[in-house]
Amino acid sequence: MNRIFNRCIITTILLIICDFKMANAQQVPDELFDDVIPALEDSVPPENNEEQLWQSSFPSPEPERHTLSLGLETRPVNSQQMALMEMMSAKADGVFINGQFVLLKNPQRVMDFYQAAQYTTIWTFENQLLNEVEPLQQALIESEQDGLNPHRYHLDIIRVLRPQAYYHDIISLEVLMTDAYLALAGDLANGIVDPKTIDKEWNAEPVSDEQLMEWLAAGIRNHDIFTPLHQINADNRRYQTLKERYNALRAQGTKATDGLIINMERLRWMPQDWGEQYVITNIPAFNVEMYRDERKIYETRAVVGRADRATPRFINKIQHVVINPTWTVPPTIMRQDKLPKLKNNPAAFDASYEAVSASGKIAKPSSVSWSEGNGYSLRQKSGQYNALGRVKFLFPNKHAIYMHDTPTRHLFKQNNRARSSGCIRLQKPLELAEILLADNGWNAQKIQASIAKEKQQWVNPVKETPVYLVYWTTYVDANNTIKTTPDVYGLDKKLIRAYKKSIVQ
After folding, report:
1. Is 403 helix (H, G, I), strand (E, B) or coil?
2. Rounded-to-integer distance, Cα 47 and Cα 134, Å
3. 75 pLDDT tier (thresholds 50, 70, 90)
4. Strands across the sheet containing 376-380
5. Segment 428-476, tens digit of pLDDT
6. ∠41-45-48 over CA atoms, to 5°?
7. Which residues does 291 contact at the CB level (< 8 Å), separation at least 6?
8. In sequence order, which residues have a C-beta less than 8 Å from that of residue 240 and are 6 or more positions away?
9. Count of CB atoms within 10 A of residue 479's CB?
């Protein structure tokens, strides 16, 4: 009885969808799609407070449900839509094909797609496969060019299908092919390994399921499912260079190194759009670069965190440049280094440090009773010998990690520069400050004039520049030359294991 009732509900929904499609196909006037000049009143809030109060007394409308345009509105109704709706309403994590149960890669994503597409079939019609199956087969096979495993995307089943042929398990095949396409698009855009399982602090936003579904919808709408896939990582010259090397090795019959493959994966973790201007710190390469329109405009050697105090990998935006920064002594250094010296000589730090209370009161260190819990911190004054040098670059984060100058210059001559407590020391910080503050009207002379005042000064760049703290042991430089670095934090082995496990699933 319940099954009959459910089928009635589904039939009703299907009829509503059909009526909606017919109405839209027949009744929408062309002028609704013309551009119109927006009115000023549409972009300002109403001035009538009573009207605002009246409006606020009603509950907020529910957010609009995501819908997809497939360009199939004029196609006849497919009698198999009811079977598709039933399958999606069952919320199964797989489908039966030839009596075998096949797990889907992401059942929820597939259900969301068909709901947004109003349960329109895209690879099949009635019991017949459409021509789109052939480019899908080719796309899955070509995934090997990205170091992926085509069999991860149900290729064993999909590769034997033929356009215009009739199949008994037609809806199961429909769902399987959608799952394959969305899974491939997701792996190309976001990688097959969850970056947080390797770098728990990595915070780049992955490409959303909604965007993956939009790519598939665009492919169906434009009768070209290849282009959305080929556009993924297309503007990432580093990825494309590693991909070219990978395929050149394959053509030679040479096995690609694990380092090449896993660093392609790391590049898939990056955003699709890095920004017109960005700063990138490649931790194991011990260098910092800045790019504008993919042209390198700055480079410097860097000192990064040592293995036991590793520099975390994450992305952010540079929001502040601080000239003549002060430095607050961290609690660990305070206990282990400074307090013993203060006990032996209370005036040891009076010349270059100051005591700062929780309320901001400043006093000489020798005037404070340095016992634990006294509420004072020790802060190094601005100046030539400040631990942070003459400038620091802040991209606020929970790790208290930033880039800065340093009075200790000899470490820049070393090959292994994993020597800091986590922050990033720059060999040429003033050049970076000049570039970041150029739109503020600052030049080298103005920066030097500010330094000469020996007072801390905060400047917020007009443009907040993205900064990427990454870990690439095989990477591409500004000249598209592939280089390798030592695995200073030992992260490669962990990623290699995770990648090899994921690629066969």
Report:
1. strand
2. 58
3. confident
4. 327-328, 376-380, 353-357, 362-363
5. 999 999 999 999 999 999 999 999 999 999 999 999 999 999 999 999 9
6. 100
7. 277, 278, 280, 297, 478
8. 233, 234
9. 6
Q: What is the pTM of this model?
A: 0.84
| Residues 452, 446: Cα–Cα separation, whole Å | 10
Catalytic residues: 404, 423
CA 5/CA 342 separation, integer angstroms: 82
CA geometry: angle 242, 245, 246, nearest 5 deg: 85
Let me know how long the chain is: 505
Tokens standing for 13? Answer: 């929904």
CA 87 to CA 119: how far, in whole Å? Answer: 10
User: Rounded to whole angstroms, how far apart are CA atoms 77 and 81?
Assistant: 8
Output the CA–CA distances (angstroms, integers) from residue 478 to 298, 400, 432, in the order listed. 11, 29, 17
Rounded alpha-carbon distances, angstroms, from residue 454 to 75, 301, 385, 389, 444 = 74, 26, 11, 11, 16
Query: Which residue in 425, 407, 406, 405 sits closest to 417, CA to CA?
Result: 425
Tokens of residue 244, six digits: 């070219």
Q: Which two tokens stand for residue 298?
A: 């700055």
